Fold this sequence. Notes:
This protein is α+β, with helices and mostly antiparallel strands and about 210 residues long. The chain is built from four helices and eight strands; from the N terminus they run H-E-E-H-H-E-E-E-E-E-H-E. It has helices spanning about 5-15, 60-65, 80-95, 190-200; strands spanning about 40-45, 50-55, 100-105, 110-120, 130-140, 150-160, 175, 205.
Amino acid sequence: MRSKTTMHLYQYWDTLRGHLDVPGRGQIEPADIRHILPDLFILERTAGTTIRFRLAGTHICALFARELRGTTFDALWLAEQTSRMTRIAVEVMTRKTPVILSATALAGSAERLPMEIVLLPMRSPDGTIDRVIGALVPLSRPHWMNSTPVNYLDLSGIRVLDTAKTNVFLQNRPEIALPREPLRHRHDGIGKAIRRVLHLRVFEGGRQD
C-alpha cells in the first residue's frame, strides 16, 4: 500500500474482524477513524448487482465536484470499465476478499492524478455480506486539484490481499497490471480475473497473531 490512509483503514478493518473473515457494519466507530473519514466511502449492493454509494467522504465528493451518495460506483469509471468495476465490487463481497486498486484520475483536458483505492468487505446488520468500506486517495496533490474536478477514473492495476498470511507493509512489490477489457468479454465473471490474479501473485494482508 502506498497511501497511509488506505493502510490505516486496512489495519482498522483487520482489527475489527478479529478471527472472523469479515467485520460487521455495526462495529465501525467513526470516532476511531475520524482523521481519515473525508477519504472514506461505503458501498452497498442493492437489487441484482447494482453497487451504490451509501456514504462518501467530503474529500471524495470534492474531488468529483458532486455528491456521490446514492450514485452507482461504476459511474466513476471510464465507460469501457463500468462492468468490470461492478464485478470487482461484487467479488470482493462474494469472496470476502479485500483488494487494492491503482487508477488514474482524469480531469480537465489533460490533467492526470494517480489514485489508490482499497475495497474491504463488510456484513450488514442482517448478516449478509453486501457492503464494502473503502478509501479513495490521491497519491499526489497537484495545484489544479481543488479547482478542476475529476471526470473519470481509469483502472490500471489490482492487488488481491491474502488476509491470512503476509505483511501489508510490503509496499514495493509489483501489482498485477490489468489489460483493457475487450467489449466482447464484458459479461465474463470477474471471479475468473481475480483467480488469474491469484495464480500470478497474492499480496498478503498482515495478520500478526
